Amino acid sequence: MEIISCHSTSFYYVVNIRGKATGKCPGSNQASFPILKEERMCYVLFKPSPGALRYSGADQFCIKRPNRSRICCPINAFKEFENFDSSALGKSYNSYVVDGKEGKQNVTGVGKSVPKVIIPGLPDEDNKGDFGAPISSWFWEWKPKLNVHYEKSGCENVNSPPVLFLPGFGVGSFHYEKQLKDLGRDHRIWAIDFLGQGKSLPCEDLTSTSKEQLDGDVWGFGEEAKPWAKELVYSIDLWKEQVHYFIEEVIKEPVYIVGNSLGGYVAIYFAARYPHLVKGVTLLNATPFWGFFPNPVKSPRLSSVFPWTGSFPLPTSVRMLTEVVWEKISGPEFIAKVLKQVYADNTTKFDKVFTRILETTKHPAAAAVFASIMFAPRGQVSFEEALSGCQMKNVPVCLMYGKEDPWVKPIWGLQVKRQLPEAPYYEISPAGHCPHDEAPEFFLGQHEIYK
Length: 451
What we know:
alpha/beta; three-stranded antiparallel beta sheet; disordered N terminus; Pheophytinase, chloroplastic isoform X2
């Protein structure tokens, strides 16, 4: 739903309805909002762009969707809330509903209260029918033995802006299925798996050994790196270059980039280095740090203290440590526990995400690649330096943060907002580390960002 302009500089807080449409509005062929239930709501606050939110008369409230049909609902759908003022609809107002009661929200540093509007939820997945664009799966050979898996949709929309989605750590393009299906109806959408994650894993063993290995089903634990893997380190600098060549060789034109968690860091890092290939960046709970060890380019003396930097083969001590740690974190119980922790909305189904992550852990190279990632040096450009680079080069940035994220809490997003005061900031609740998967109703509505 195109109800928010990304050109405003305000803070926004959001509210979504969980649940499917339940009826038809009189005189309209559009589905109405369901009668609102407090326990089925996801709260989001924002100020609508001019002309987007309208009171259409006949006791109906409408949301305008440019180039698409409107969604309307009867005003009485909102009367369940105490003190709801229907005269405020379509105006710039400060009263809104919080847990069934009227209230105001003030954001430190802004000095203005922020209005709240309720957005309808998507239909239940089981009842979508032909909802959404078809998704196709592809592989791109970036370098010998390094195949990048990606998914795309909407390629027939030749005159639409291209959008590239970058995933967080441990997941892949599958984490953007909802965006690929919905945005693919109007845009050209790509989502990639970073090398070492998802399906972008080695197609053969990275190392060889002169003696018989104890376990032939485990790759990367040999005594010598194969020629193609000798300089390979699964680092943030590798992923930044992967994105660079993917855009140049596959998409072949500047794009809008959306990154969640680790993908957000890569997105802003890439945009600062290659602004001519970026139309805008959207950060979804972007991690502001990555890597435990110093970068040899930025800190050569300090990095010399750490002789191994994620290359192959793995040192013997690292192999032993990796075997112990990997056995613990690759099990289904651990993966399920982490997902329950980062998904704040317990109504969100993450069965597919769980299955795909588990499939990745079964790859013979997964453990060795994990070790390379954990010991890889930090990027040559820090998160703060990348933000400054985007600011100096006028790269538009949009911020979206799940309020209940236990890892990258909203305080990190607010720090970015202070560094980039012109960037719009959206805080979504209830939503955790993956707001695009927990509250796709809101995220899918931001079509104006990609224009």
